[in-house]
Every structure is written in C-alpha cells, then in structure tokens.
Design a protein that fits this description.
single chain, mainly beta, Virus Head Decoration Protein, Chain: A, 2 domains, 18 strands, about 5% helix, about 40% strand, elongated
Length: about 260
C-alpha cells in the first residue's frame, strides 16, 4: 500500500494500478510545484512530458485526480483517471448524486468574510484594559479610564488595531469584518478585566475563502454544469469545509460538458 494506492494490483510495468477507492490510476509526474495532495484535480502540464499540474478555474482540460499525498514535485505520482476517486472540495455543501466539476470564475463570488458584533451592555465603572479576542489574533488590549458609556466603550474598541480586520462602531455596537475572506477557528471573546464592562459577542458570518484559480479544488452542484469540466458524480453527502483532507467520494468519469 502507498497512500491509498494498491500496488499489488498494478498493471504492465507498474504504469497502471487499482486504488483503494476502486479507481484506475496511471503513473505520471507531479508538477504542481509542491508535494502532492490526495484529491487534487489535475490537468496535463504544458512544460514537462508526462507531467500533471493543478486544474485552474474554468479549465476544460482536467485529466484526473491525484491518488496519493506527499509525493515531491518532479517525482512519479499516481493519478486516478477512471472509476471512483476521493476528491478535495471547496467549502460548499454537496449531496449524493450532485455533479462534481472544476470551479468556474463565478464560484469566486461565493467567498464570505467572517463577521462579529460586540455589543456593550454595561458601561465602564473602573479604569483598566479590556481584552478583545478575534480569531487568529492574540487578544487586543483596549485601555479605558473608567467612566465611559456603552457608546464610548464601543468607540474605544473600534479605534484599536485588529490586524486583518476592519472595525466600525455604531452606538454601543462594534462590527468586525475580515479584510480577506478566509476560514478561521471561530475563537472570539471579551474580558472585562475589572472595568465593569459587559459585552455580547455574536458571530454573524462564517468566513469562507474564494476559490483560488490554480488550487485544483472541485465544486459540487445540484444542477447540470453549464461551465467547468465535469469530473463525475458525488457518491456520498459532503458538508465539510475545505481542507487538505476534506475529501468526498465521487465517480471519476472525466469528460467535458
């Protein structure tokens, strides 16, 4: 076994083999520019003989799905071209029977910037520094003199620097929005630190990145794809977020629309 590839069932000269998922894979050369990631949609590379590289947005030349992870750039890698394959998906929901295709430019519009609101519900009663926590950031300290109203607390928090986030204060509420849409760990919070301030923290939008044009990530859709290259059909429900190991099983019937 080698990263999901059954080498015991390899064909002539080890050029073709059966994968654990029930697909047929051919030995090609990884030219994605990095170690291979299982589930990546790839097309034929235009510079290296027998090379494959990540499929781009609106591509019409998808060839197959990488069948094993951790293979260095420039080395032989197994690529599933028929049968079943585990496919890496963008952050969208798919159900059994959905079409699986390469992304198109319009998919990038599905990016969502994560947002939070911090509503001050009690004024400051003592001097001190409150701590405001947003995902992927160390808690930011905001100094208060101790007599601020809830609206003034919001103004003070919004004036602080939160790298990667924009801020806006309206009355007693501060709204935080990501500068660039991305997934996060969702960890946020507020520490009064003896100031008497209380805050209600609400996550109002969950961050989701745009599809990167060269990332080889597939999309599931319930309608016949009008664009993008069809990879196959989803064989199981898919609801997870996009990660390197975010894989769902699909028929790897590789054909254009």
């Amino acid at each position: 076994m080698n990263g999901g590839v059954n080498l015991a069932n390899k064909g002539l000269n080890g050029a073709v083999c059966e994968t654990d998922e029930g697909g047929l894979a051919v030995r090609l050369i990884n030219k994605t520019g990095a170690a291979s990631i299982k589930g990546t949609a790839v097309c034929i590379d235009g510079t290296t003989a027998f090379g494959v590289t990540e499929t781009v947005v609106a591509a019409t030349n998808n060839f197959g799905i990488i069948a094993e992870s951790g293979i260095a750039d420039g080395s032989d890698v197994w690529v599933t071209f028929a049968g079943k394959a585990l496919v890496a998906f963008h952050d969208n929901v798919g159900v059994k029977g959905n079409y699986v295709r390469t992304p198109i430019a319009a998919d990038a519009a599905n990016a969502v910037k994560e947002k939070y609101t911090f509503l001050a519900t009690h004024a400051a009663t003592a001097a001190g520094s409150v701590l405001v926590k947003l995902p992927s950031l160390t808690a930011v300290s905001v100094a208060l003199v101790g007599n601020e109203t809830v609206n003034q607390v919001a103004t003070a928090i919004a004036a602080a620097t939160f790298t990667g986030w924009t801020t806006a204060a309206l009355n007693a509420t501060v709204t935080f929005e990501q500068s660039v849409a991305a997934t996060t760990d969702g960890v946020s919070g507020f520490t009064a630190a003896g100031t008497g301030v209380t805050e209600t923290v609400t996550r109002t939008a969950i961050g989701k990145p745009a599809i990167v044009p060269t990332d080889g990530i597939a999309v599931a859709t319930g309608t016949i794809p009008g664009a993008g290259l069809q990879i196959g059909f989803l064989l199981e429900d898919h609801t997870a977020r996009r990660y390197a190991d975010d894989l769902a099983l699909a028929m790897c019937v590789l054909k254009s629309n």
